[in-house]
Amino acid sequence: MSQDFHIGIKSHNTHHVSRCHAAVLVIRNPYDTLKAEFNRRISQMKTGNGQAAHTDTIDPEYFRSDKWRRYVRGTSKTWSNFYKGAITGLKNQGKGFHLLFHDLLKTQKVEEMRKLYDFLEEEASEDFKVDNVEERLNCIENQKLDKYKRKNQEFDFDLFLPDEIKAINELVEGYKEFFKNNSIEFPEETVHNWLK
Hints:
mainly alpha, 2 strands, Sialate-O-sulfotransferase, two-stranded parallel sheet, 7 helices, P-loop_NTPase
């Protein structure tokens, strides 16, 4: 393996697309994404602790604020543009990509990790070999990672207003069409279930 070889770079923007050989894109239900990322940002702002912000929960009153309303409007568009931009850029450059659906990682983690391994092995060829793959997949199957998750918050109000739901649902429908028009395999039932 060469000295400057990287197996991956985690990024929340598409500027690495031109520098990568291939990409793995983790895509999540936009409603869950908005809630989780807003929670993380507010928590980090309040505590200054970036690590804890991934598991902390914030006071539900933040989700009644104008800040939340602005966040939903702006970030839902960012969510939509990110994946379309990354996929279009990768396709235009003839680069491979693999979509990992967050929902399926929760319900079919071993199957999804096997698909990811196959993709990485194909894209990196001789640079990516892992011994004892089945043993590692078995380990993944038996892991309990709940301590790395944010506790589920119950709300006695709707987080999203009717016009926000309409706009986000349109983005989801746009993705279904985008995937179909670009012959990209996707779990139709999973994506359909994102709709509110």
